[in-house]
Amino acid sequence: MNSIIEEIGKIGIVPVIALDDAKDAKPLAEALFKGGLPVAEVTFRTDAAEESIRIMAREFPDMLVGAGTVLTIEQVDRAVSAGAKFIVSPGLNPRVVFYCVGKNIPVLPGTSSPSDVEAAIELGLDTVKFFPAEAAGGIDMIKAMSAPYSKVKFMPTGGITADNLKEYLDFDKIVACGGSWMVKKDLVAAGSFDKIEALTREAVTKMLGFELKHVGINETDEESADHTAGTFEAIFGMTKKAGANSIFAGTGIEVMKTPYLGANGHIAIGTNYIERAIYHLERQGVIFDEATAKRDDKGKLKAIYLKDEIGGFAVHLIQK
């Protein structure tokens, strides 16, 4: 998979934008960037698209600015010249895809059927857009097509909202989802970029789904751990369950048999997508301790600690 598309996968959501006036490009890009989505697909549906891409790419060089609704080779050239790092189209035009592949330009053509997917594979692609997602059968259609095309990944766009986003992203063949609910045209027209930033941050937060899973208490030995866990059981009815290194009281309290990370103990935060969570938190300056990473038998990350304590507690992310 292309490195640009890999990064889009870490971001998880691609805002799809149609701008009528290039003057809105900079404040809109800033709102998206601050809100936690350093990516934008600027559609070539308006005359302001090319200049908007140029402004976004110049003012926010770390942002993945792409061009959407690209229908011709001429539009590819204009978009790339303006600074677009990837190309998206509503359908699969073999000439456009062949041109992009030949110039090593990441391209995500629209597909909605097995025939489209086969054409994309023939052109050398392993990731495609699925459009219009909801109208074309939604996640059920993608799952059905993924059976025979197991190496292909999809970026569904069209009808994706905050409410059905997780339904799509939970499927491991979805690289990311395109959506416009956080960048509605009326908000752009009104100059409500603070609202767009808030909606963007809300979308990222909902996608990652951070949730307190348990609190760990450091004890000095197994006897002390058993006593502490037993106290929670006696008072609150939290059933004890002993493990190799700790004793749980219910599901929310873990008592360590010997002192572990954190001056006072540790806090476990669950997330829907741990790799995406790491990407987004690192953008905020959070540092992770790679030595604490735990993976399953397939090599997928399932837990990792932050490098710094918070309030005397070590904090680790765990995959829900």
From TrEMBL:
Q: What is its EC number?
A: 4.1.2.14
Q: Does the keyword Lyase apply?
A: yes
InterPro entries named in the record: Aldlse_KDPG_KHG (IPR000887), Aldolase_TIM (IPR013785), KDPG/KHG_AS_1 (IPR031337), KDPG/KHG_AS_2 (IPR031338)
tRNA processing among keywords? no
Alphabetically ordered keywords of this record: Carbohydrate metabolism, Lyase, Schiff base
Q: What is this protein called?
A: 2-dehydro-3-deoxy-phosphogluconate aldolase
- Reactions it catalyzes: 2-dehydro-3-deoxy-6-phospho-D-gluconate = D-glyceraldehyde 3-phosphate + pyruvate
Q: Name one GO molecular function term.
A: 2-dehydro-3-deoxy-phosphogluconate aldolase activity
